[in-house]
Amino acid sequence: MDAPFDPADQPTGILMTLSPLVGRVLAPNPSPFTYTGTQSYLVGTDDLAVIDPGPAEPAHLDALTSAIAGRKVVAILCTHTHRDHSPAAQPLGEATGAPIIGCAPLTLDDDGPRADAAFDASYRPDRVLADGERLTGEGWTLEAVATPGHTSNHLCFALPEEKALFTGDHVMGWSTSVISPPDGDMTAYMRSMQRLADRDDAIYYPAHGEPVDNPQRLVRGMMGHRKQREGQIIRYLTRNGASGIPDMVSEMYRGIDPRLHGAAGRSVLAHLIDLDQRGMAGPLGDGRWQMR
Fold this sequence. Notes:
This protein has a seven-stranded mixed sheet with strand order 1-2-3-4-5-6-7, covered by helices on one side. Strands 8-9-10-11-12 form a five-stranded mixed sheet, with no helix packed on it. It is of the alpha/beta class. Strand 11 (164-168), helix 3 and strand 12 form a beta-alpha-beta unit. It is elongated, with a radius of gyration of 19 Å. The protein has two domains: 16-213, Metallo-beta-lactamase, Chain A; 227-291, Winged helix-like DNA-binding domain superfamily/Winged helix DNA-binding domain (Arc Repressor Mutant, subunit A). The mean pLDDT is 93. The protein has helices spanning 58-68, 89-96, 186-197, 215-240, 245-252, 261-277; strands at 16-17, 22-26, 39-44, 47-51, 72-78, 100-102, 127-128, 134-137, 140-146, 155-159, 164-168, 203-206, 243-244, 281-283, 288-291. It comes from Sphingobium ummariense RL-3. InterPro entries: LACTB2_WH, Metallo-B-lactamas, RibonucZ/Hydroxyglut_hydro, Sec-metab_biosynth-thioest, WH-like_DNA-bd_sf.
């Protein structure tokens, strides 16, 4: 019998070639929220872009330096500024001389449940990419695709030479993304998901989880999942009347790891805020919500 899959027992610090233009190095930061850890991508052959350099852990920085192997780094790009994605940008930039390019800086007090997702206050980009802006290197192009929702500053990066999209945390290869207010926004997330559903990318490279080779089907499924969750919330409040989020989570997320209940509550709150904005539900001021 095969041993059960253990996200913490995956090979870190090794350059894995995924395509002629894409390599991947896994950071040693597995958790219930990061799965096997943050995946940093190297794009290019003779000159490189590094996407989501990850946590500023010495072992991971050494692994990235080894994978770069003396080649020129044109840019270090970050999809967003949660602490498992961007802190290594500054030391890697100092080591390689490469500029930090990509998402806008964003620092908020995060009252969510996951310490690893606090915003990276050290992130200082040399250039912020607007939606549709491009970077080029020898044989490759990266185009910014604005995808707010998981965070307001989230970008994906398209690689048109391979019809690939680096999706950060917007679409992951193992789980749906946590949408945690006040910065996480369910309305924006669903709009961004529809944008991806309308694209013709052939493969996704997420920051967590394996590559996705039928991305539109996954996106449609994730959108359907969110609509189902919204329906659950509406039915719960209609049946039970005014209720608090912990009670909703206990019923709607039966069987999940209890360590994820806090994150589930944030996503429920994001749904409730979206329903409030649409005039369908509202808060009572005592932590409870009700249908209007």
